[in-house]
Amino acid sequence: MLSRRSLLAAGSALGATAVSQHAMAALPEPVTQASSDTMPPLLPATGRPYNPVVTLNGWTLPWRMNNGVKEFHLVAEPVVREMAPGFKAHLWGYNGQSPGPTIEVVEGDRVRLFVTNKLPEHTTIHWHGQRLPNGMDGVGGLNQPTIQPGKTFVYEFVARRPGTFMYHPHADEMVQMAMGMMGFWVTHPRQKHPLIDTVDRDFCFLLNAYDIEPGAYTPKIMTMLDFNLWSWNSRVFPGIDTLNVRKNDKVRIRIGNLTMTNHPIHLHGHEFQVTGTDGGPTPKSARWHEVTTDVAVGQMRQIEFLADEEGDWAFHCHKSHHTMNAMGHGVPTMIGVDHREVARKITGLVPDYMVMGERGMADMAEMQMPLPDNTAPMMTGEGPFGSVEMGGMFTMLKVRREQKPGDYSDPGWFRHPPGSVAREWTGALAEPARFKAEGGGAMPARHMPAGDVEVQVRKPKGHGGGHAGH
Ligand SMILES: [Cu+2]
């Protein structure tokens, strides 16, 4: 749990009076977090006021004020992250979590960041998007010597530009980001900014991805593209909290991408505008309405909209493979193939063989497939009408009339007004218009010849694969 009481007490004591050299030299006590719930916004106790962000399944790092400087203490260390209920990953992160805590400051703040390395190898931190002295930019070997295990470095600069940023290592970067080392950074404007609107709710999260074999705990760090866990803040649906807002709230969502591919982020039921990037606020003349915005690798996007439609609105990456969990990709398309005869023969060889995919993959969501321990549920997440058949980068925006200002708790499922839900039609139907050229429009079922079949059997453990054929 968050244990910042002593830190804040120390902060106010130090901030109120002149600080001795000895006190200035002392490190702020590191604050850690173990819960993977979304923490309530951290209201600033010192410094200029601002409207804090809410980090999805994350938290904001408290600071201490030292002679007008905001001091933070980040600890790079191995962490255990619950990515979804029943599935834990052994990652690297900061202050007990991956991603690390969100850093929130105000434009013009002088910021001092102590970084302690408790990893088994060297690291650095790059402050992505910031204007700062070159020697504070954090590229190991280029701008600074790397931080060796057990050592603490200090970074110090003025947060010059308001906006949406992130931080991550720039030393053994491929490994350390594949292991989950990253965090969010928000610099709030110091006064009313012509391009930055005041909002009622301000959410943020990072897009990240892992390659963890079903049943394993540690990501494979050499994977370049074929990740199997597409996550938001190192959580996968149904482990991602919902974004809960009050009807007619002005909502901002800030998203950063530290995966190896782009993610078209799609919101249902509302149109939004991209109001800023890691380059700063977007000029109003360059904004247009979208329902999907692509967040490319290494980019930040902040979107804004008026939440004026009540309901439980899907909010997800539009790459359909990114709303799945831990799937094998070596699965042939079986739609329309009647393989009852083949299955009967295989069952003689492999008793627990399961027929997959002849009617699409939706059966998978309902099938109780034997999975190894510590495996992310593949396509689960129960909705009020059944399985949502989603995993990975998926959650919901919940818009409610009765949600109180400042209340981020889950209001439960939407209660639809009578007659406003799609339902089965049982009345008379006219013949539908349809394409009538060759094939007639319907996909014919092909019966596979019984004598000449090669089938690859992949059992859930991933090692039971082999060829059964004749
Ligand atoms: Cu995606």
Précis, in short:
By secondary structure, the protein is mainly beta. Helices cover 8% and strands 32% of the residues. The protein has one domain: Cupredoxins -  blue copper proteins (Immunoglobulin-like), CATH 2.60.40.
Protein described:
The chain has helices spanning 5-16, 21-25, 173-178, 340-349, 363-366; strands at residues 54-55, 64-66, 69-84, 87-94, 103-106, 110-117, 126-128, 152-158, 163-168, 183-188, 201-210, 229-232, 243-246, 249-257, 263-267, 272-277, 280-281, 289-290, 292-295, 300-307, 311-317, 337-338, 380-383, 386-390, 394-400, 446-447, 454-457, 466-469. The chain is mainly beta and 470 residues long. It has one domain (1-416, 452-470): Cupredoxins -  blue copper proteins (Immunoglobulin-like, Sandwich), CATH 2.60.40. The strands form seven sheets. Strands 1, 11, 12, 14, 16, 17, 18 and 20 form an eight-stranded mixed β-sheet that branches. Strands 2, 3, 4, 6 and 8 form a five-stranded mixed β-sheet that branches. Strands 13-25-21-15-19 form a five-stranded mixed β-sheet, with no helix packed on it. A hairpin with a 2-residue loop joins strand 16 and strand 17 (280-281). The longest helix has 12 residues, at 5-16. The termini are far apart. It binds copper (II) ion.
